[in-house]
């Protein structure tokens, strides 16, 4: 087992990883930017190393600085959290070259799955259903247009190197295609440094459902059920829950079994997520694989009792999974709401500033994963996630009522938050009756009801 | 002379003797006559041209929070541009790039900062006199950590 782990991340996930490390008796080192020198993660870690200025590309994305910090502090492993370098094949390779264990899948798997067109081919090879689409990256606008016409509109143009809900464009009219194609390519080139795109059928009014898998280095893979992440705004998830409401258990089992088969075939290791779209007839099709711990992982933890970060660390240390598929028991319902420091009345504009008051909710079956505290300064350099409120209850109705109560308790002064907006979504009849799809937030709009 | 004035004169004599005895310049003096107090602050990093002064000693003594306090206007700090290990000399056993009191020109190398086997030169971006060396040889440093204080000359 590792004695020291360097955490190459910030915010609530850095704190989340520190907590599990402490429970495992592992010393933690947090690498941080100057903007995060006063963060809770820095305060809770056994050691902190300042690695760069606020701009992520010079700190949290600076592989050389992170590895130097790891070597200087005697870390044997690096936990990349989510975002930043968590799915970066080059970083994983550099870690290996310097004798550090990257807590995640091997670089070869990251390389393959980081390319969305290749990931799609891999899914097809392992028998997972995919939506009609181009078989690989497209070379020209004409070729892409031909593919789109054949698939039938609406289609979605996706960046091969995309991720985190960015680098995608939905095209509904054939005449818009070439313009959107050029635009997506240019954006992909600018954001990901790779302009290649592919085209897929787009499902209107579908649900976003994902399967959590865990794999060790010895070929053992299990799944821990599915999460419904259909409440999204501009492809950023707002509310996640498990089990997916009103989805037959047999469908979840089929998705889970397919994901396990695919992960085993790919040689996947650690924690990973298979994302699917599910139509109203419960047909599921593969979208992509996220090679990291997910923001919404706590809902799975709440219903299974499995600490996913612990399993990630144990797997990276070469331990065999102690969990067999038949041991995975899921009980009750868990919901997560992402409370962001954004202003819903101003088109969800992120609000930076000082948090004067910060009173997170508590009480029975409420978990809050946050890096917030009174006096905290929210830097404009990073994402606006302030807290994840997670609740558990035996039934969904009770979980919704509990979440509403928790959000109502949450007091934040100094910056705007999305708590009020989240409560409105929870109260929406479509959500309450589990009839919602990824278009729910668009239907509600940005207004507070 | 009153008692207080006697005491003050005696304290001042003490102070002058202390100043002469010290190899380091005094940076702060506080004399109090009532109840007798004499407070003297040395600047250990300010010893002029003292080759014997160990480079590593000042790091423990210098106030890290404000390395430019008590220094002349126009003094400036050279900070670490990245996380790494600071080396004071071009190779082990060689004389250091600079010593306290040295006058350096713009662009002159002060140290090496090693990060992942890359040797990054740390240069003076302005001319000055080396007033403080804040980090001992071969010490790990963080991004933005103050390494040297240079004063105008």
Automatic annotation (TrEMBL), chain A:
Residues 1-446 form the Biotin carboxylation domain. The keyword Nucleotide-binding applies. Keywords: ATP-binding, Ligase, Nucleotide-binding. SMART domains: Biotin_carb_C. InterPro entries: ACC_Biotin_Carboxylase, ATP-grasp, BC-like_N, Biotin_carboxylation_dom, Biotin_COase_C, CPAse_ATP-bd, PreATP-grasp_dom_sf, Rudment_hybrid_motif. It catalyses: N(6)-biotinyl-L-lysyl-[protein] + hydrogencarbonate + ATP = N(6)-carboxybiotinyl-L-lysyl-[protein] + ADP + phosphate + H(+). Its EC number is 6.3.4.14. Residues 120-317 form the ATP-grasp domain. It comes from the Bacteria. It is an enzyme of class 6 (ligase). NCBIfam families: PRK08591.1. This protein is a component of the acetyl coenzyme A carboxylase complex; first, biotin carboxylase catalyzes the carboxylation of the carrier protein and then the transcarboxylase transfers the carboxyl group to form malonyl-CoA. This is biotin carboxylase.
From TrEMBL, chain B:
InterPro entries: AcCoA_biotinCC (IPR001249), Biotin_BS (IPR001882), Biotin_Carboxyl_Carrier/Decarb (IPR050709), Biotin_lipoyl (IPR000089), Single_hybrid_motif (IPR011053). PROSITE patterns: BIOTIN, BIOTINYL_LIPOYL. Keywords: Biotin, Fatty acid biosynthesis, Fatty acid metabolism, Lipid biosynthesis, Lipid metabolism. The keyword Oxidoreductase does not apply. The keyword Protein transport does not apply. Pathway: Lipid metabolism; fatty acid biosynthesis. It holds the Pfam family Biotin_lipoyl. Residues 75-151 form the Lipoyl-binding domain. This protein is a component of the acetyl coenzyme A carboxylase complex; first, biotin carboxylase catalyzes the carboxylation of the carrier protein and then the transcarboxylase transfers the carboxyl group to form malonyl-CoA. This is Biotin carboxyl carrier protein of acetyl-CoA carboxylase. It comes from Asanoa iriomotensis.
């Amino acid at each position: 087992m590792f004695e020291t782990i360097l955490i190459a991340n910030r915010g609530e996930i850095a704190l989340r990883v520190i907590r599990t490390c402490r429970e495992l008796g592992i010393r933690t080192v947090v690498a941080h930017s100057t903007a995060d020198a006063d963060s809770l993660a820095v305060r809770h870690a056994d050691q902190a190393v300042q690695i760069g200025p606020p701009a992520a590309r010079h700190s949290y994305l600076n592989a050389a600085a992170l590895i130097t910090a790891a070597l200087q502090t005697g870390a044997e492993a690096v936990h990349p959290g989510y975002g930043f370098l968590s799915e970066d094949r080059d970083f994983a390779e550099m870690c290996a070259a310097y004798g550090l264990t990257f807590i995640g899948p091997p670089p070869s798997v990251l390389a393959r799955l980081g390319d969305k067109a290749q990931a799609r081919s891999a899914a097809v090879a392992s028998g997972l259903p995919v939506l009609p689409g181009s078989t690989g990256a497209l070379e020209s606008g004409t070729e892409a247009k031909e593919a789109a016409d054949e698939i039938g509109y609406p289609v979605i143009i996706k960046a091969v190197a995309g991720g985190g809900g960015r680098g995608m464009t939905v095209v509904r009219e054939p005449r818009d295609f070439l313009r959107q194609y050029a635009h997506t390519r240019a954006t992909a080139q600018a954001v990901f440094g790779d302009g290649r795109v592919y085209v897929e059928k787009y499902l209107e009014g579908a649900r976003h459902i994902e399967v959590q898998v865990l794999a060790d280095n010895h070929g053992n893979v299990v799944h821990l059920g599915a999460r419904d992440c259909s409440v999204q705004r501009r492809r950023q998830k707002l509310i996640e829950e498990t089990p997916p409401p009103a989805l037959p258990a047999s469908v979840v089992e089929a998705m889970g079994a397919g994901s396990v088969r695919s992960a085993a075939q790919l040689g996947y290791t650690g924690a990973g997520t298979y994302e699917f779209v599910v139509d109203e007839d419960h047909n599921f099709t593969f979208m992509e694989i996220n090679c990291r711990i997910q923001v919404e992982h706590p809902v799975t933890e709440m219903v299974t009792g499995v600490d996913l970060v612990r399993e990630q660390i144990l797997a990276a240390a070469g331990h065999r999974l102690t969990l067999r598929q038949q041991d995975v028991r899921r009980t009750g319902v868990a919901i997560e709401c992402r409370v962001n420091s954004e202003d819903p009345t101003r088109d969800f504009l992120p609000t930076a500033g000082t948090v004067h008051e910060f009173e997170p909710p508590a009480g029975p079956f409420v978990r809050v994963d946050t890096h917030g505290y009174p006096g905290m300064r929210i830097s404009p350099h990073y994402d606006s996630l302030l807290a994840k409120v997670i609740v558990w209850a035996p039934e969904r109705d009770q979980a919704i009522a509990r979440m509403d109560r928790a959000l109502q308790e949450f007091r934040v002064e100094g910056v705007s938050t999305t708590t009020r907006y989240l409560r409105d979504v929870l109260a929406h009849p479509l959500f309450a009756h589990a009839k919602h799809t990824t278009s729910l937030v668009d239907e509600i709009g940005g207004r507070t009801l | 002379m009153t008692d207080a004035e006697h005491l003050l004169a005696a304290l001042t004599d003490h102070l002058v003797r202390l100043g002469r005895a010290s190899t380091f310049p005094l940076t702060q003096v506080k004399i109090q006559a009532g109840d007798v107090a004499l407070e003297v602050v040395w600047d250990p990093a300010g010893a002029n041209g003292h080759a014997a002064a160990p480079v590593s000693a000042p790091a423990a003594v210098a106030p890290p929070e404000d390395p430019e306090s008590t220094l002349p206007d126009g003094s400036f700090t050279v900070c670490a541009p990245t996380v790494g290990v600071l080396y004071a000399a071009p190779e082990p056993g060689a004389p250091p790039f600079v010593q306290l009191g040295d006058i350096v020109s713009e662009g002159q190398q002060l140290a090496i900062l090693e990060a992942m086997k890359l040797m990054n030169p740390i240069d003076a971006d302005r001319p000055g006199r080396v007033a403080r060396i804040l980090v001992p040889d071969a010490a790990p440093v963080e991004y933005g950590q103050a390494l040297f204080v240079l004063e105008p000359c």
